[in-house]
């Protein structure tokens, strides 16, 4: 089995936001929000932003609002290079 590759921009404030007419800024949901509720809300939000050609970024990549090490109690984490990966959130981001 090949190891998955993960590519990221290390600072959301260095992204090419100047290329967009509009962007939503940083977003996410508190890590005490039930995971299924967060994913449903975030899926709807991403669809609206995509349909409106509005860019977005997560509040953070690693931490309470991120894909890694969010500290959510109700996530079945996947080990990723010593971190806890929220695969459902990552897959959602990849499909949107």
What does this structure look like?
By secondary structure, the protein is α+β, with helices and mostly antiparallel strands. The chain has one domain (25-95). The protein contains 2 helices and 4 strands; from the N terminus they run E-H-E-E-E-H. It has helices at 35-51, 87-95, and strands at 23-27, 55-58, 78-80, 83-85. The strands form 2 sheets. It has a two-stranded parallel sheet with strand order 1-2. A two-stranded antiparallel ribbon has the order 3-4. A hairpin with a 2-residue loop joins strand 3 and strand 4. The chain is globular, with a radius of gyration of 14 Å. The model is unreliable at 8-15 (pLDDT under 50).
List keywords for this structure.
96 residues; 27% helix; single chain; alpha+beta
Question: In terms of quaternary structure, what is this?
Answer: single chain
Number of beta strands: 4
Compute the separation of the termini in Å.
26 Å
Q: How many strands, which pairing sense, and closed or not: the largest β-sheet? A: 2 strands, parallel
Order of helices and strands: EHEEEH
Number of helices: 2
Residue ranges: pLDDT <50 for 5 or more in a row?
A: 8-15
How confident overall, as mean pLDDT?
80
The percent of residues in helical segments reads 25-40%
Strand content bin: 15-25%
Structural class by sheet pairing and helices: alpha+beta
Rg (C-alpha, Å): 14 Å
Give the count of structural domains.
Answer: 1
Q: Tell me, what's the shape? A: globular
């Amino acid at each position: 089995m090949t190891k998955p590759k993960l590519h990221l921009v290390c600072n959301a404030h260095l992204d090419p936001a100047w290329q967009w007419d509009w962007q939503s800024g940083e977003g996410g949901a508190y890590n005490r929000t039930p995971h299924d509720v967060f994913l449903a809300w975030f899926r709807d939000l991403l669809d609206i932003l995509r349909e409106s050609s509005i860019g977005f970024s997560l509040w953070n990549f690693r931490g309470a609002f991120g894909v890694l090490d969010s500290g959510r109690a109700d996530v079945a984490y996947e080990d990723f290079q010593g971190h806890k990966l929220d695969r459902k959130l990552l897959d959602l981001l990849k499909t949107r």
